[in-house]
Amino acid sequence: MLDEKSKVIEHADRGEGYRLLALYSPQIASAAMPGQFVHVKVPALEASALRRPFSIFDADAETGTVRLLYKRVGRGTAALNAVKPGEELFMEGPLGKGFPLECTGVPLMAGGGYGVAPLYFLAKKIMALKGGVPPSPELFVGGRTKADILARNDFAALGVPVAVATNDGSDGDKGFVTVPLDRRIAALKAENEPFTLYACGPDGMLKAVADRALESGTDGWISMDRHMICGVGACYACIQKTTSGNARCCIDGPVFAAKELVW
Amino acid sequence: MVDMCVDLGPVRLATPLATASGTFGYGTEYMGAVDYSCLGAVTVKGIRLDAWPGNPMPRHAEVPGGMVNAIGLQGPGVGMFLNHYAPLYETAFEQTGIKPPAMIVNIWGGTVEEYAEVAHIVAGSGFSFIKAIECNVSCPNVKSGGHTFGHDPMILNRLVSTVRKDLEMPLIVKLAPNVPDITPYVKACEDGGADAISLINTIPAMVIDIERRKPAIANKTGGLSGRAIHPAAVKLVYDAHRASKLPILAMGGIYEAKDAIEFMLAGASAVALGSAIFSNPGVVREVYDGITEYCSRHGFTAVRELTGALEIDA
Ligand SMILES: Cc1cc2nc3c(=O)[nH]c(=O)nc-3n(C[C@H](O)[C@H](O)[C@H](O)COP(=O)(O)OP(=O)(O)OC[C@H]3O[C@@H](n4cnc5c(N)ncnc54)[C@H](O)[C@@H]3O)c2cc1C
Ligand SMILES: Cc1cc2nc3c(=O)[nH]c(=O)nc-3n(C[C@H](O)[C@H](O)[C@H](O)COP(=O)(O)O)c2cc1C
Ligand code: FES
Q1: Which pLDDT value is given to residue B97?
Q2: Which of A124, A263, B279, B280 is the most core-located residue (most Cβ within 10 A)?
Q3: Which of A50, A154, A225 is the best mutation target for the ligand 1 pocket, counting ligand atoms within 8 Å of the beta carbon and taking the most?
Q4: Rounded to a whole number, what is the distance in Å from the CA of A27 to chain B's nearest CA?
Q5: Does B218 map to a domain?
Q6: B230 found inside a domain
Q7: Mutation pick for ligand 2 pocket among B17, B23, B59, B203 (CB with most ligand atoms within 8 Å)
Q8: Which residues of A30-63 are buried (b: 16+ CB within 10 A; e: fewer)?
Q9: How many folded domains does chain B comprise?
C-alpha cells in the first residue's frame, strides 16, 4: 500500500451522473488486483474531509493507468466531478482483499449500478489468465433504469456477453438482475455445467447472489460496500459481520466468500 | 540541525510526534504511506482483558472540521494483542531498516482491577519496544452504573494508584476533555503516581440525519475529533500544564506543524496525530518538517525548548 500522487489523464462523462476517471498512477497500477480499491483524497474538499473509496475499474501496468468508474451521490463525488486532466490528487492503494482469480466452471458476474466497476477488471484478468480458453465470463447487470447500465461497451469489447435487467423495464428484463441470472443458472444446472458467482452492488442484490451460491453449493465471491474512515484496517469503522466475528471490510474484504457472510 | 529528541517523563522519544490511539491500528497498517522515521511513538488501539466486539454500524459520520465516531473499542483482547499484533510490529520493521518507534499501549477496562491486570500483563510481556502504558479513562465503570472513570477525581485517583502499584513501566493517563475544570483530574493523576498525562480524548457529540429523522450513528452519540476540537484542546493543555509538573502528551486536531507547536508552547512535551492521518498520511512528515523549520527560524536548537515557552504578558 502507498499514497501515490496521481495525475488525471482523462475525466469523461458516462451518462447521467456517472463518470470515468483515468489517472496516471504507475505504482498502484502495477500492484492492483481485481476487487481491490483506492482511497481518494478529493482535492477540492477541506483538509479534514475523509477520503472516498472507489473500486479499481481497470489498471494497466504497462501504461501506468488506473481507471475509476463512479457515480455522483454526495458532496465528495460532486467535488470530484470538477477535477480536470493535468490536475494531481493523492490516492492510497491498492487496498483490500480482492476476488480470487481461479474459478471452476463458468464465471457468472452480477453487478448493480457502479458495482460493475470491479467486475470489468476481474473479467479482463480472468480472460487473460485463461488465454482465450472457454468458458469466458458472463455479465449480468441491473439498475433502476437504462441510464444505470454502465460500461456495456467495455464488456462487449472484451467479448463478455451482457444480460440486462432494469426495475422499470426500460432495458432488458423487467425486474432485478436475478431474473436473467436465475435463467442462466437453471440452464447451466440442466447441463450439469459448474459455475462460480461474483457480485458487487447494493446489499439486497449481494444477498440474493450469495443465497444462490449457497443453494447451488458453488463458490460465491461478494464485494461489500461499507462506509470507511481509514481504508487500511486501522480504525474499525467498516465492519461486516462474518462467521468468524466482526471483520473489517477494508482489509479483511471488501470481497468475502458468500459462505462466511452473516447478514 | 535541530535536536528532535524529547522526554515524556521517563519515556525518551526520538521525536516529539506520536500517533493517537484508535487512529493507527496496531502500528503497522500505515506502512508504506506514513514516514515512520518521523515518529517518536505509536499508540495502539485500546486493549482490554478479553476481545470486545464494539458498537453496531454505522460507527461514524463526517462533519465540518472532523468526524464523530462511536467505534466502541472493538479489539482482540490483551492475549491476542501480545501473541499476534506485537510480534507483527517487531517483524514489520526488520525489512525496512527503520528503528521501530516506541509503542505506547492504550488500555481500558470495566473495573479498576481489570485496568491493573491488563497493565501488568503488558508490562510483563517483555517486548523491548513497548515503552509505556496509556490508560483511557473515558469509558464506563460497570460497577458504578456506567459513569466513566475519568469523571470523578476520587475514582480516577484510585484507578491510577491501583494500576501504578508494582507496575514496572511508565504510566500515562489519558484524560477526558468534558469537565468544568481539568485541575482536580490532573492532581488525581499526579497524586496517584502517573508519569505523564495525555489529552484530549474526543468530545461527546451527536449527528442527526434529518431526512431519516434518526441519529447518524447507530450508538446515537459518539466522540468528536479532528480540526474542530483543536482550540479546545490547546486550552486544556494550557490549564493542565499550569496545574502540575506532569509531562503532557497532547492531541486533538493536529493537521499542520502550527497546531503541534501551539500544543508544545502551551506546555506539551510531545504531541500525537490522530484523525489527520486518515485524510493525509503524509501529514506526519509535513508536521515534522514544519517543526524543524520553526525551531531553526526561531533559534531553538532543541525541540524540547518549546515546551511551555508561551509568553504571557503580566
Ligand atoms: C470498497 C468500496 C468500493 C467502492 N467503489 C465504488 C465505485 O467503483 N464507484 C462508485 O461510484 N462508488 C463506489 N463506492 C462508493 C463510494 O465510496 C461512495 O459513493 C462515495 O464515498 C460517496 O461520497 P460522497 O461524498 O459523494 O457522498 P456523501 O454521502 O456526501 O458522503 C458522506 C460520507 O459517507 C461516505 N459514503 C457515502 N456513501 C457511501 C457508500 N456507498 N460507500 C462507502 N462510503 C460511502 C463517504 O465516503 C463520506 O465519508 C465504493 C465504496 C466502497 C466501500
Ligand atoms: C476512530 C477513532 C477511534 C479512537 N479510539 C480510541 C481508543 O481506542 N482509545 C483512546 O484512548 N482514544 C481513542 N480515540 C481518540 C484519539 O486517540 C484522540 O484522542 C482524539 O481523536 C483527538 O485527536 P485527533 O483530533 O487528532 O483525532 C479515537 C479517535 C478516533 C477518531
Ligand atoms: S475503514 Fe478503518 S478499519 Fe476499515
Answers
A1: 83
A2: B279
A3: A225
A4: 12
A5: no
A6: yes
A7: B23
A8: eebbbbbbbbbbbeebeebbbbbbbbbbbbbeee
A9: 1
| Of B116, B118, B41, nearest in space to B76 by CA | B118
Grid cell 470481497 in the structure block, residue: A255
CB atoms near residue A209 (< 10 Å):
27
- Domains annotated on chain A, with CATH: 2-95 (2.40.30.10), 106-260 (3.40.50.80)
Give residues (CB < 6 A) around ligand 3. Answer: A 228-231, 233-238, 248-250
Contact B25 A49 (CB under 8 A): no
Domain residues for the domain of B109 are 6-56+71-203+225-306
- Tell me the CA end-to-end span of chain A in Å, nearest whole number: 29
pLDDT tens for residues B247-285? 999 999 999 999 999 999 999 999 999 999 999 999 999
- Measured CA angle at A118 (ends A171, A33), to 5 deg: 160
Mutate to test the interface with B, among A232, A250, A252 (most CBs of B within 10 A): A232
Angstrom distances, CA of residue B171 to CA of A160, B11, B140, B247, B274: 61, 10, 20, 11, 20
Residue B145, pLDDT score? 67
Q: pTM for the complete prediction?
A: 0.96
Q: Which ligand is nearest to the CA of A36?
A: 1
Q: Kindly compute the dihedral angle of the four CA atoms of residues A26, A27, A29, A32, in this order, to the nearest 10 degrees.
A: 180
| pLDDT for residue A16 | 82
Contact residues, chain B, for A41 at CB < 8 Å: 279-280
Angle at B92 between CA B90 and CA B93, to 5 degrees: 75
Residues of A with CB under 8 A from a CB of B: 1-3, 41, 46-51, 90, 92, 226-227, 229-230, 232-237, 239, 245-246, 251
Work out the burial of residue B59: count CB atoms within 10 Å of its CB; fewer than 13 is exposed, 13-18 middle, 19 or more buried. Answer: buried
Predicted pLDDT of residue B42: 98
* Residues in chain B, pLDDT under 70: 141-142, 144-146
**Which ligand minimizes its atom distance to the CA of B228?**
2
Question: Is B213 contained in some domain?
Answer: no
| CB contact (8 A) between residue B280 and residue A48 | no
Report residue B30 as a C-alpha cell. 500505515
CA B102, distance to chain mean position in Å, is 13
Residue B11 is predicted with a pLDDT of 97
Establish if B150 belongs to a structural domain.
yes
Please identify every stretch of chain A with a pLDDT value under 50, giving residue numbers as ranges.
none
